[in-house]
Amino acid sequence: MNAGGKAPRVAVVEDDPAIAEVLVLHLRRAGCEVRRYGDGRSALKDLDDFWPDLVVLDLRLPGMDGFEVLSRLRGERDVPVLVLTALGETRDKLQGFRLGADDYVVKPFDPEELLARVRALLRRAGRLMDDVVSLGDLRVDRSAYAVHVRGHTVALSRREVDLLAVLAASPGRAFTRGQLLDQVWGMDSDVDERTVDAFVTRLRRKLQEAWGAEEPAPWRIETVWGVGYRLTVDR
Known about the structure:
CATH topology of the largest domain: Rossmann fold
Largest sheet: 5 strands, parallel
CATH class of the largest domain: Alpha Beta
Structural class: alpha/beta
CATH architecture of the largest domain: 3-Layer(aba) Sandwich
């Protein structure tokens, strides 16, 4: 989450679909709003609409290469840029930094290390991405895969934690089942929208049991008919 309470926006400019899917999956699970572009021209054209807090940029792009994209970015706006590329020669790194890259990661990469670098750049830019979301007596720790209600640990599966973390990061926002599938299950193609319904049912039961039967919890996962689900917090 950033200082304004909204999920940080990350633009991923990567033409390799497999790598882009891994990046998008991990960034969304970390609480970011992500938009992916397969080439530099489409990214530059859309950035005024998306207005990202961070750009993850490949250098080997079709048409306009990443160096030119980086140069144009620096001429138009002040946004952190993390270069992610197979070009690992010192001269390529120096050129990237000279054009204004804030960090430089060489493929193949460790997704957790890349997330750590993303967090560092967002913090440095004042666009904080938190691992922990607290809504009163509900605390969701993404990095530890732990959920606490009234100080007590709730036994949840990793997927249940992922699902709750997405909802809790944007309280009041309605997510479609498709959006939740994309952000929580990502590349797992053997699940459908009924899976989301089943996980929400279990989450509701476990969270209410953790809160106690004497009164309704001050937060709840509501069904938004015709759309999907949202987490609502009583003020």
